Automatic annotation (TrEMBL):
<feature type="compositionally biased region" description="Low complexity">
    <location>
        <begin position="337"/>
        <end position="351"/>
    </location>
</feature>
<dbReference type="Pfam" id="PF01145">
    <property type="entry name" value="Band_7"/>
</dbReference>
<dbReference type="GO" id="GO:0098552">
    <property type="term" value="C:side of membrane"/>
</dbReference>
<dbReference type="InterPro" id="IPR050710">
    <property type="entry name" value="Band7/mec-2_domain"/>
</dbReference>
<feature type="region of interest" description="Disordered">
    <location>
        <begin position="301"/>
        <end position="377"/>
    </location>
</feature>
<feature type="compositionally biased region" description="Gly residues">
    <location>
        <begin position="366"/>
        <end position="377"/>
    </location>
</feature>
<dbReference type="GO" id="GO:0005886">
    <property type="term" value="C:plasma membrane"/>
</dbReference>
<feature type="domain" description="Band 7">
    <location>
        <begin position="22"/>
        <end position="180"/>
    </location>
</feature>
<keyword id="KW-0812">Transmembrane</keyword>
<protein>
    <recommendedName>
        <fullName>Band 7 domain-containing protein</fullName>
    </recommendedName>
</protein>
<keyword id="KW-0472">Membrane</keyword>
<dbReference type="InterPro" id="IPR001107">
    <property type="entry name" value="Band_7"/>
</dbReference>
<dbReference type="InterPro" id="IPR001972">
    <property type="entry name" value="Stomatin_HflK_fam"/>
</dbReference>
<dbReference type="InterPro" id="IPR018080">
    <property type="entry name" value="Band_7/stomatin-like_CS"/>
</dbReference>
<keyword id="KW-1133">Transmembrane helix</keyword>
<comment type="similarity">
    <text>Belongs to the band 7/mec-2 family.</text>
</comment>
<dbReference type="InterPro" id="IPR036013">
    <property type="entry name" value="Band_7/SPFH_dom_sf"/>
</dbReference>
């Protein structure tokens, strides 16, 4: 009897454990359990601890209520310009109604995949290849709108649709690469040509500025050179004028006689003989008479009187040369007027003493040199 009671007790415990397992159901968070009673929908179990009727109610499906991501393999799609491209998509969806997702559609993932494929072919079929490659956002929005509307009765909400990749045929890829390479080469050539043009423009502007600066420098150099030559000419003219006045005054102050002129003639004779063309030079035997005659003739030609008489000095003018600050013509005119004034003053002074006409006609030193060389010839 004790053995039979023990077996009965064990069976009773097993029955209680099985009964508790069939009665208590724990649903995880973000899940929903679909309960059927005798094959008919009875209710939906929320997350947590739930009590069902054992052996009568059955949890048929456990639906995931979280947002799910499904990636579909690449699908061939024909574009408007009859090119076949492979497009793979990613769908982000969420089950909002577990009952509809269970009883309205047998396999909602496969249904979403097929609907995505047909909608994608419809959208891409109205675009050419270039538009397809550059209109991913438009394709995503079109797919999302169609899928969200179609899957609403299935208890599914499509949150987002993404195009993972659009792969054209290899020949099209090669042609696109060639086109892209040609475009880049064209842009490179254009940039190179623009660089050369800018370089040529800058070089020309530099040459222009250099030529302008060189011309301005040459002009200023010529102006400065002309001014220097003008001042040098003015200084030379003033120097010559003062030299003439000094010699003229010295002749009048010194009152040279015939002996001095003869001595000057003897000093000039070696210089006369230094010329390369003078092979033979004959000194006359009557040199004393020649010198005496030379002295008398030069004395008469130069207007030098035989008797020493008081002389009036000629005004020598300023000892330092005065350089005019005006133009070259004004400077030359002032210099000429100064020389003429000095000569006129010298003539007026010479007219007041004897022999003035002879002095005015003979002039200063150069006449003496010419008179001295006449006997040698």
């Amino acid at each position: 009897m004790s053995t039979a009671l023990l077996i009965l007790f064990v069976l009773l415990v097993l029955f209680v454990v099985v009964l508790m397992a069939k009665t208590v159901r724990i649903v995880p968070q973000a899940r929903a359990g679909i309960v059927e009673r005798f094959g008919k929908y009875k209710g939906t179990l929320p997350a947590g601890l739930n009590i069902v009727v054992p052996f009568i109610d059955k949890v048929r499906y456990l639906i995931d209520l979280r947002e799910q991501v499904v990636s579909f393999p690449p699908q061939p799609v024909i574009t408007e310009d009859n090119l076949v491209v492979s497009i793979d998509t990613v769908i982000y969806f969420q089950v909002t109604d577990p009952v509809a997702a269970t009883y309205e559609i047998a396999n909602y993932i496969q249904a979403v995949e097929q609907l995505t494929m047909t909608t994608l072919r419809n959208i891409v079929g109205g675009m050419d290849l270039e538009q397809t490659l550059t209109s991913r956002e438009e394709i995503n929005n079109g797919l999302r709108g169609v899928l969200d509307e179609a899957t609403g009765k299935w208890g599914i909400r499509v949150n987002r649709v993404e195009i993972k990749g659009i792969d054209p045929p290899p020949s099209i890829k090669d042609a696109m690469e060639k086109q892209m390479r040609a475009d880049r080469d064209k842009r490179a050539l254009i940039l190179s040509a623009e660089g050369q043009r800018q370089s040529a423009i800058l070089t020309a502007e530099g040459n222009k500025q250099s030529a302008i600066l060189n011309a301005e420098g040459e002009r200023e150099s010529q102006i400065l050179r002309a001014q220097a030559e003008r001042e040098a000419a003015i200084l030379r003219a003033q120097g010559e004028g003062q030299a003439i006045q000094t010699v003229f005054q010295a002749i009048h102050d010194g009152q040279p006689d015939q002996a001095l002129l003869a001595y000057q003639y003897l000093q000039m004779m070696p210089k006369i003989a230094e010329g390369d063309a003078n092979k033979v030079w004959v000194i006359p035997s009557e040199i004393t008479k020649a010198l005496e005659g030379l002295g008398s003739s030069m004395n008469e030609l130069a207007g030098i009187p035989r008797d020493a008489t008081p002389r009036t000095r000629v005004d020598m003018g300023p000892s330092e040369p005065q350089i005019p600050e005006s133009s070259a013509a004004l400077g030359q005119r002032e210099t000429s007027e100064a020389v003429q004034a000095a000569i006129a003053e010298a003539e007026s002074a010479a007219q007041t003493r004897p022999g003035a006409s002879a002095v005015r006609n003979a002039g200063p030193g150069p006449s003496v040199g010419e008179g001295g060389s006449t006997p040698t010839q």
